[in-house]
Design a protein that fits this description.
Largest sheet: none
Mean pLDDT: 87
Radius of gyration: 20 Å
Low-confidence stretches: none
Number of helices: 8
Shape: globular
Length: about 200
């Protein structure tokens, strides 16, 4: 029974990691909501993680109740005419509620999953996604057109982020994640040197 639970837990974590990685690397953006697909993958990742909390007693910290009350502010602003469209107020509230859900999941998972394991999985996820993004940025720099890479507009590459500064920040996060994996002896020095060179090169492009 314990082995089955750990297998289910690993599958849920893997699926959630896949969704958030797709949010970082999805190439397509459509008007009028350019970040819709990426946001959808983020919501799916959070919803998938929530499955880990269904068979447990949820702990509701006071800070969660504070964030939950903050989520009502857009609707209050709409009622006072500070936000003109109800659709905007609902959408903002929706985002804030998902932030509350992510915060609640994080608080509860910190009690049932070892924090070192969470850091290890997070570092692996960010590191792998950053490496993939760096490869995409190099392909984009050489103007190699593939369906899974956004077309290059302007002088600086941005992989599938659509914005060079966002890409550079994420690649720096990936570098920190890989340094952490090397620090805990999960990543060889030679591999770290190779991928760090790739990430730094993509940042400088």
């Amino acid at each position: 029974m314990l082995l089955e639970y750990k297998y289910t837990q690993s599958c849920i974590l893997l699926i959630s990691a896949l969704f958030i990685s797709l949010a970082w690397s999805w190439p397509n953006a459509y008007y009028p909501w350019l970040s819709y697909t990426q946001d959808l993958f983020c919501f799916l990742a959070i919803s998938t993680l929530f499955l880990l909390c269904l068979n447990k007693k949820l702990n509701l910290p006071l800070s969660f109740l504070f964030f939950l009350s903050v989520s009502c502010i857009p609707l209050i602003q709409y009622s006072f005419g500070l936000i003109y469209y109800i659709s905007d107020a609902i959408l903002i509230t929706y985002y804030l509620l998902f932030f509350c859900l992510a915060y609640l999941i994080g608080c509860n998972l910190s009690f049932c999953i070892d924090r070192s394991k969470i850091l290890f999985l997070l570092a692996c996820m960010i590191g792998c996604a950053a490496i993939i993004s760096a490869i995409l940025s190099v392909l984009q720099f050489f103007e190699l057109n593939f369906s899974f890479i956004r077309g290059l507009k302007g002088g600086r590459v941005y992989a599938n982020f659509g914005q060079p500064n966002n890409m550079a920040t994420f690649h720096f996060m990936g570098l920190i994640a890989l340094l952490y994996l090397n620090y805990i002896k999960r990543l060889h020095n030679v591999v770290l040197l190779l991928v760090a060179t790739l990430l730094l090169f993509s940042i400088l492009l």
